User: Fold this.
Amino acid sequence: MCLRAITFVSKNLSRRKGRSILSSIGLILAIAVIVSTFTISRSMEVQIGDEVEKYGPNIVVTPKTQSISVPYGNVVIGNVTIPESSVEKIYTIPNKRNLRVLSPKLYGQVQYGNNSLLLVGIIPDKEVELKRWWNITGSSPQNDSNETVVGSAVKLSLGLTIGSIIQIKNTVLTVVGSLSETGSVDDYSMFLSLQAAQMLLNLVGRVSVIDVGALCKDCPVEVISQQIMDALPDVKATPVKQAVETRMKAVEQTANFSLLLASIILVVGCAGIMNTMLASVHERMREIGIFMSLGADNNHLYKMFFFESMILGLVGGLVGTTVGLISSIFFGPLFIKVTINPTEIPLYPIPFAIILSTSACLIASLYPTWRASKVDPVKALKTV
Amino acid sequence: MIAMKEVTKVYEMGNSQVLALDNVNLKVEEGDFLAVMGPSGSGKSTLLYTVGGLLTPTKGEVTVNGTSIYQLASRKRAQFRRENVGFIFQTFELLPYLTALENVMLPLYLAGASSIEQEDAAKEALDKVGLANRAFHKPAELSGGEQQRVAIARGIVNNPTILLADEPTGNLDQKTGNEIMQLLCKLHEKDKLTIIVVTHDPAKAERANKVVEMLDGHIVTNQNSKKWG
Assistant:
């Protein structure tokens, strides 16, 4: 058994338990808000990142020089094509691991009776993977076959059903499936295998566009686009600005606002800690006088008060982190509609929050400690 | 050993000034047991704390063993107190949340002693004041006399050369007060401690070998006590 700085800190804090807890509430609240902001915004980013895949391509690779032009969705398709082998070249870029799916396509306009049809040659499994919102009645076309899937408007205007046969130029196509309405140009298109389209349009080994689905949560899509253009000098890789980015921005802004709020709470919390420590210095004036009469110097007092505030900061940080994590797990799904998987909670805010809370407490104790060191021991002991 | 040379202490009280020590000269030899007497406000306690390195004089010099203590930096002066001075107060000034043993350990903790040194020396000091069996009691569980004994044990645990006692019997009944004075005499005789005691009570002052009487910040008499002749 012996005396250490911790003896005085623990005995003093336990003597003033109620007040210590009350004064730590602001700090705990601030740390809880900071931790839950990090946790929730991280989970939102992950969730949005997962949704990226559902939004389809985020880079469209087209020939550099285009003649005019069939509008297809956001891009304008000309009759200039690029070699199909470009797909392999795209897989050589430095960020190749971020490429989720590449879907080359060949577009062409053909005449069918009085109608002009938009033919789209696709690699069916790639296109289906890219456009997860597609709902096909029947089946998708097989590679190397003369099967076709028709958009809802085409199906309706030509009166097609599954099993219908249509002849375009010299090619006979069998309708094996139809798309439910998508609200896009896909409704007016006929999809068939890339090989069949190349044969039909006399463009063997050529494609009009390559849709690229890249996982770009951690990497800017512009970087990948540039890498594609570096690998293929004759193409233009256009990043498609999507709602994802807007949503990411919204998450960032909300997180920033929460952090601003947390900073304000932290400042108020620190003021609370400072107030309690000033009261503590005032109450312990006599004790400080005793310490000084027994030979304590400023270092002893600094050690005692800094240690006390460090313990307050550590405990406040730990409690705040726990409250933040638990509340984000329980209240995240309730109020922000974000499901937080406890196994996926990022760990870096924990040490950050604890260091922040301890440093905040140490800063808050600077003035009270300085006041303690300026105590006149004789006045403190009220003996003269 | 202790020399006060033309020491003046003025307290600033708002707009007014109070002269607590007025050009005081005093010499205390090693092993002296000095009693400082005088009415309230005569400057007795101010003199005591000035000698103990706790109260910087407005003017003059205080030397202890040749060292001018107020020329030392505040950290060095704190070290001087830790190593040379033991204080005893009228109201004991024990820390209520520490046991008797822990209170006695306090100066050793401040001096950076190891846990074994702290415990051994504190037990020995408590034994010296006859309170070994009360080591684990908190101050509130001890009588006034016992609390003052703990305070004395705390005052001597660092083996100081000077023990300064400010009205050590002021809060005790006659009998207990006499016991405390007896204990101080024993420490003076056995350990050859230099002791300065501030007291109101002439009977208590008689136990010292020198008596100084103060009035309005001046030393009015400086003589050997009746007991020692």
Observations:
- The first helix of chain A runs from residue 5 to 15.
- Residues 75 and 214 of chain A are 18 Å apart (CA to CA).
- The interface with chain B takes residues 1-4, 7, 11-12, 15, 286-287, 289-300, 377-378, 381, 383-384 of chain A (CB under 8 Å).
- Chain A is about 50% helix and 20% strand.
